[in-house]
Give the backbone structure.
Amino acid sequence: MNSVLLKPIITEKSMNQAATGTYMFEVPKSANKIIIKDAVSKRFKVDVIDVRISVLKGKIKKFRGHTGKRIDKKRAFVTIKSGQKIDAFEESK
């Protein structure tokens, strides 16, 4: 299960969404919504309401005559039940 959630995405946009109950995670390209929902609910002990997935295609970059491609990434936007929260996204002050 831990290999499904590669890492939480901690950005300004994701922190604003976390305040409304939607959390963003990087997941493997082979993961689907059902697997992601089970992994989040078991790892953080929350009730998952909705899972949305976004696939980010890697750019093609050129440098000194060589062409390369950045890797493709997949992100999951997980909405949890109101009143619950995930501690990994809490700001420490």
In short: Strands lie at 7-8, 22-27, 48-56, 60-63, 66-69, 73-80.
